[in-house]
Amino acid sequence: MSHASALELLAPARSLDFGIAAIDHGADAVYIGGPTFGARAAAGNSIEDVAALARYAHRFSARVLLALNTILRDDELEGARRLVWQAYEAGVDALIVQDMGLLELDLPPIQLHASTQCDIRTPQKARFLQDVGFSQIVLARELNVAQIRAIADVTDRERCALEFFVHGALCVSYSGQCTISHAFTGRSANRGECAQLCRLPWSLKDADGTPVADRRHLLSLKDNDQTGNLATLIDAGVRSFKIEGRLKDLPYVKNVTAHYRNELDRILDARPELRRGAAGRSSFSFTPRPDKTFNRGSTDYFVNERQGDIGAFESPKFVGTPIGRVARVQGRSFAVEATEALANGDGLAWFDAAGVLQGARVSRVDGATVHLVEAPTGLVAGATLYRNLDHVFEKQLAGKSAERRVPVRMRLFDTPDGLALAVTDERGVSARAEIVCDKAEARDAVRAAATLRESLCKLGSTMFVAAPDDVALDTAAPWFVPLAQINALRRAAVDALLQARAAAWQRPARAAAVEPPARYPDTSLNYLGNVFNARAREFYRRHGVELIADAFEANHEDGPVSLMITKHCLRYSFNLCPRQVKGIRPEPMTLWQDRGEGHDAVREPLLLRFDCKKCEMHVIGRRVSGKAGKRRPAG
Known about the structure:
Layout: E1 6-13, H1 16-24, E2 29-33, H2 47-59, E3 63-68, H3 77-89, E4 94-97, E5 111-114, H4 123-131, E6 134-138, H5 145-154, E7 161-168, H6 180-185, E8 202-205, E9 211-216, E10 223-225, H7 230-236, E11 238-243, H8 250-270, E12 275-276, E13 281-284, E14 298-299, E15 321-330, E16 333-338, E17 347-351, E18 357-366, E19 369-372, E20 384-389, H9 391-398, E21 402-415, E22 418-425, E23 430-436, H10 445-456, E24 464-465, E25 471-474, H11 483-504, E26 524-525, H12 534-542, E27 547-548, E28 561-566, H13 570-573, E29 589-593, E30 606-611, E31 616-621
Parallel strand pairs: 1-2, 1-11, 1-12, 2-3, 3-4, 4-5, 5-6, 6-7, 7-11, 10-14, 21-24, 21-25, 26-27
Antiparallel strand pairs: 7-10, 8-9, 8-29, 13-21, 15-16, 15-20, 16-19, 17-18, 17-20, 18-19, 21-22, 22-23, 28-31, 29-30, 30-31
InterPro entries: Pept_U32_collagenase, Peptidase_U32, RNA/ubiquinone_mod_enzymes
Domain Peptidase U32 collagenase: 385-501
Protein name: Collagenase-like protease
């Protein structure tokens, strides 16, 4: 079957344990950070743990992708090269890369994937990355279905798979095009150290200085949820479905991975021309509910064109799902008119009179009366109550909550001096074992056949599963054979199949770059090209780029520049868009950081400029990190 027909569910692995859990819960591939150079600096892992994860993943023909997706200084390139070789020797299947300087190094023949930090929004950029040797490219989250299809039309699905984020946190800026964190804190998102200033509260003023919004999280977006668009994305050409969350907790990984496994399996069961990206079927001891673990609300973002409600302006935290209204409050207790049953240990949240999210844990529930661990802050009668921790659900996820098994077929047949058992997995890998034994005719042939099938199906301690209908008895008769010998034959055949599967596993091949070298879509790169080392500069020159600016992280940009470029538009959010209101002009606005909650990273207002032709908002400011004193407003 064609490589282009395989659908891959790609899940985050914060650590070895998280990666194993993701695979158990149905992931076809996991992405994990190594010791250094990952875009989540707080989610690093030893090479030994990465190797252990690869061994586990390969049992199910699942892949392990190493995130090496930061931009690198010249003095870091050799360390990165050594890390790539270590990862290759550890069994890693592919690298997720942002820095093109890596392609100029002496690397092993490991497959390359282009990170979301590469800002892949156009067919030209996608085709270029395919032609320089990338086998999988992560498309920008902001694309709509037509744009995804246009990229699929110019790329070779057999050679380069399209990957798309289907769940999790959304960066407000185009990925790889955000420098606000480095500008104000010295912590670069392109270096894995984003300070997440976009999640802070801001105030918005129009061109005349008139307040539009006060103390709201204006750059904070809801979380991505493409549950309803999976079939559409498949038809548009997406083949790898990525879940964000290398910093999320284990219940999130289990719950969300299981949810998308179920959704993709429903599609696969109805469309035989498609297949799973890895082997095995997962079963769960819980019903997946993405709304039960961390989220900021949900949006399908721009997949179905611009939506009016994509912002999480009230809070960047996990508010939870509404479960009722408070009737009265007395001390540490309150009465609630609940739509769902509450339980001891639940986490509850509400907004106080100032619009600040508050919360507390439940100590005891007596009917409609809820007792809290501590006195609630700002909770009043009439407040909407949210549950952001479902203790019963979390308990279901606390222990073993999934099992992944590979279906097999068996065939028992005669040999001149005994019996042989052939076992074949769902992908056609087969092995056999034989025993020497006496075969006696059974008094009850029907019962003997059922006993043989039942004994051969006892695969409980292995990674395989078979039903009696999956066992063919191709023997002259349903012989009576001592069960101890049948069990030994089954164990030997299973061991042989494990060895055969290990021998059949092949690391995906590195794609060759086209010759002569493909030309980059532009002949110049500004600071947003993220060129931070001499090897990256050599790469782009070799591909036809003539003017190459240094990355913003080189600290050469001192004037006002675009610190973010985003499809999220605050004019649109507040009904001030020229497409919404006739006669209105897209005049600049300003963002002021609210310092009432102790945040003072941004000490000057940021200018907002609106490019209505591209339907984009630019957040403009100056680099102040490492500089003394305050600057005047940008622009």
